[in-house]
TrEMBL record:
<protein>
    <submittedName>
        <fullName>UBA/THIF-type NAD/FAD binding protein</fullName>
    </submittedName>
</protein>
<dbReference type="InterPro" id="IPR000594">
    <property type="entry name" value="ThiF_NAD_FAD-bd"/>
</dbReference>
<dbReference type="InterPro" id="IPR035985">
    <property type="entry name" value="Ubiquitin-activating_enz"/>
</dbReference>
<dbReference type="InterPro" id="IPR045886">
    <property type="entry name" value="ThiF/MoeB/HesA"/>
</dbReference>
<dbReference type="GO" id="GO:0061503">
    <property type="term" value="F:tRNA threonylcarbamoyladenosine dehydratase"/>
</dbReference>
<dbReference type="GO" id="GO:0061504">
    <property type="term" value="P:cyclic threonylcarbamoyladenosine biosynthetic process"/>
</dbReference>
<dbReference type="Pfam" id="PF00899">
    <property type="entry name" value="ThiF"/>
</dbReference>
<dbReference type="GO" id="GO:0008641">
    <property type="term" value="F:ubiquitin-like modifier activating enzyme activity"/>
</dbReference>
<feature type="domain" description="THIF-type NAD/FAD binding fold">
    <location>
        <begin position="50"/>
        <end position="272"/>
    </location>
</feature>
Amino acid sequence: MDDLDAYIRSRAEGDLFHWDSQVDAAERFGTTLARVEEAALAQGLLPARYQRNRQAISVNDQLTLFRSRVAVIGCGGLGGYVIEELARLGVGTIIAIDPDVFEEHNLNRQLLSSPGTLGRAKVEAAAARVAEINPAVTLLPREEAYAPENGMELLRGAQVIVDALDSIQTRLALAKTCTDLGVPMVHGAIGGWYGQVATQFPGDDTVQKLYRRWVEGKGVEQKLGNPSFTPALVASIEVAEVCKILLGVGEPLHNRKLSVNLLEIIFVSVDMINDPPSAAD
């Protein structure tokens, strides 16, 4: 790919590499937009779409994100926003897992839903959206339900796993699969004006603590519903956690739970070592 590298350098403007040049390079050298993006980043050139990341995320960090693989379990209220933000952030490979299709009641809050996508598989809509907003990112759609029996295979190779589920039972199973894989899991849950986020690292039992009093059912979401703004906020916090984990920066919500109350604008970080039962129990 020496010719590709030389071409990329010749088309750079300072340390920026613009989208039209990226598209031209892929066509000229018969390769993918992903390969061109990685080649530019490897030379210390920043694809111009990421220039507003520059003060927070270095070019080397952007390359790390592009070479990363993140799995998102659930492509609904939380998952749609998570996928959108991961793609715009520049995470190179996203595994999207969901067996469902869009229904009319999804339209109030699920970013990937529209009247035109009703009846369409959520993972198909996710793939189409990512192809539209950042074609250099690869989204791998998995139109099937996560279960303990298939979890190891579905999630293999992921460096971080994002919980965007609405089932506590499935979430607890996912936490165990993440532990077995030795991979961090970013947990998010929503209900009405409220939400919570926590990050479980291998060897922790954070999610089990959060739901230690759960007996059955899906949790408070079924009682409180979900307006449009709650999943958007909680998903954004989840993506920030993913970014910190992949780049090894900042302080993740390790052994902590962030509780969000948007009705009264109260954010509380709770030490999970001595955590009282969660509102989601």
